[in-house]
Amino acid sequence: MTDMVSQPTNRGLLISPRGNELVLRLYNAIRSLVRARHDVSALHETIGRLLEEEGQVSIEIRRDRFLLNDRKVEMRSGHAVNRILLAELRKRGIGRIEFSGLPDCPGLEDFLKSLMGMGGEEGLSGETAVEPTDEVKIGSVRVKGLEPDVKSREAGPSGGERACYAWVYFYAIDLVRELFLQAERNEPLDLALARRVTRAVVSGCGDAPANWMGLATFKTNSEFLANHSVNVAIYAVALGDRLGLPRRFLVDLGLAALLHDVGEVGFHFLEDGQGPELTLDQWEEIQKHPVLGVKKVLGSSGCDEAAMDRVIDGIFSHHLHYDLSGFPKGKRKGRTSLVGSLISLADFYDLAVRPFGERRFPCFSDRVLELMIDRAGTDFDPLLARYFIRTVGVPPVGTLCRFDTGELGIVSTIMGEGSGEEGSRVQLLERTGERYRRGELISLGPPDRKAGRTPRAIRAVVDPNELAIDVAEYLIEF
Q1: 144 strand-pairing partners
Q2: Which of 237, 281, 296, 395 lies at a 20 to 30 A Cα distance from 66?
């Protein structure tokens, strides 16, 4: 993802285009030593090329995957090489290998033997553990110990990871804005970069779904179409991930969601943050945008045929209802498409909680979820609607609550069915003069069987507009 790596501190989520090549060649080189073939030339060539292109080579274990130069190595389903090599390095306590220069082939071979503890017939079963605090330097290569895995799913991502997610989020908004400008000029769209960004969003939603729900609390009317499109992509991908859909499908779904409203470019009456009260003429124009959107993406590059079919499907059908009403009008039989149905739910939700008119700030509450349930069976697929509610949480991430203790807090992680103690976390707010600041991050904890309630009980859901609170300010790390 070379187009997006100019800021090294924001690279942790991005996908490395050369990662699998380096992992495979490292694995093959080690296996060749085990089998007495002593062939490290392919690995030597790959490291040399990476050093020329990027100035350094570091391969690191983070959670259950590799990072190459702080960019994730995409682990394809069933990629045994990644998993075997991860297990072998973990067994030896090796967390990071850095190449500041290129050793010659004999030197690289000696390093690998030392790294894997290969003496006599030990082979890959050699146990040469490196302590977490260890840092061993061998010529131009440095090895660091494996960091303790303190980042459990309930603890959530670190501040650095959250800042990285935020960078990708706002980068995506900028990218969509540029694509929409191209569409307005009737230029063919190059979707290759948008597809790579979508893969980053898919990875992020899989690793830290609640954090991405927090990012989607950012709602702005100054860049309405771009902001709305990225939020819809997050909601749709998170829903698809909860459903267990394949990664390839999720990437195509995310791209379709990013472009679902491309047919609205040039509708200048949408640019001022106007709410749902449209004139009759404006509403008639709005109903044309699915067909206009399909026309805008025809002839685009950067997608294969299967991906483009899904993108077109999502753009065309995201306003078709479960009962086959909605628009575009026409004679239809059968069922709505999965891509269109997922985007339809995400689109409705993002629009329902957005600020408009005198409402300056978005308002999240379970009232919107109740409305979706009321429309299940007509507007929305009932099963998908229930899964969507579990995806955003009950109450949804971003809900401003008043507790029985008098404290004010924002739901920061998904509190839906089966979340338990680790899923019920709230960012408390502390009053400082005329403003609020972040307070303690608390867990609502398991139910107290004797008292019949949790340690803190939600007394009321508060409209952020009453207190002039933008919840995104407290949920997004910059």
Answers
A1: 96, 135
A2: 237
Asked if the model's pLDDT at residue 48 lies above 80, the reply is: yes
The CA distance from 455 to 140, in Å, is 55
- CA distances from residue 16 to 1, 5, 19, 66, 74 in whole angstroms, order as listed: 6, 10, 5, 10, 7
Length of the chain: 478
Q: What integer pLDDT is reported at residue 131 of this predicted model?
A: 54
**pLDDT tens-digit series, residues 225-238:** 999 999 999 999 99
Q: Is the pLDDT of residue 443 over 90?
A: no
CB of 31 within 8 A of CB of 74?
no
Measured CA to CA, the distance from residue 7 to residue 27 in angstroms comes to 30
H/E stretch holding 71 reads strand 71-72
From 201, 205, 197, 163, select the one nearest 177 (Cα to Cα).
197
Q: Lowest mean pLDDT of 125-134, 289-298, 407-416, name the range.
A: 125-134
Q: Tell the burial category of 94 from Cβ atoms under 10 Å away from its Cβ (0-12, 13-18, 19+).
A: buried
Residue range 309-340, pLDDT digits in tens: 999 999 999 999 999 898 887 666 667 899 99
For residue range 99-118, what is the model confidence (pLDDT) as tens digits? 989 988 888 888 888 887 74
Between CA 33 and CA 39 the distance in angstroms is 7
Lowest mean pLDDT among 150-159, 402-411, 425-434, 447-456: 150-159
Omega into 446 within 30° of 0, i.e. cis? no
313 in Cβ contact with 337 (< 8 Å): yes
Eight-state DSSP code of residue 262? G
User: Rounded to a whole number, what is the largest CA-CA distance in the chain?
Assistant: 82
Do 413 and 425 touch, CB atoms closer than 8 A? yes
What is the crossing angle of helices 80-91 and 19-34, to 10°?
Answer: 60
Question: What is the C-alpha separation between 296 and 290, in angstroms, rounded?
Answer: 10
Q: What is the edge-to-edge ordering of all strands in the sheet holding 71-72? A: 71-72, 65-68, 57-62, 94-99, 141-145, 135-138
